[in-house]
Design goal:
Layout: H1 5-18, E1 23-27, H2 30-42, E2 45-53, E3 56-63, E4 76-78, E5 87-88, E6 102-107, E7 110-113, H3 114-119, E8 124-130
Antiparallel strand pairs: 1-3, 2-3, 4-8, 5-8, 6-7, 6-8
Length: 131
Amino acid sequence: MVNDIIADSLTRIRNAAMRRLDYTTLYYAKIVVSILEVFLAKGFIESYKVIDKDGKQSINVVLKYDEKGRSVISEIKRISKSGRRVYKGRDELKRFKNGYGTIVVSTSKGVIGNEEAYKANVGGEALCSIW
């Protein structure tokens, strides 16, 4: 059993991108699907699909590469961990990596990117960063 499903999912995506795999499989969790929605909206992944096999759900994530075959994900990192929660206010979420990266934030309005949280005037728990 995995203790931190988000960290496990990010590591699987990172490892698959380094190996230049077409897709990777993640454990299913609603929070992971919400994070993948943000990644998809920001253009860091091609697509994802929830698969139900023998009563167990998993997620297939299709990774995205540029025209030279390099992954569009330069770095993907877990920010808030189970032993140390990290919360960011609205003012700390304005820009990340000059707009090239995204901080995924869990807010009262759901799991959204940092720019959407700034526009919605909300802060929250910083789950992970990607650029």
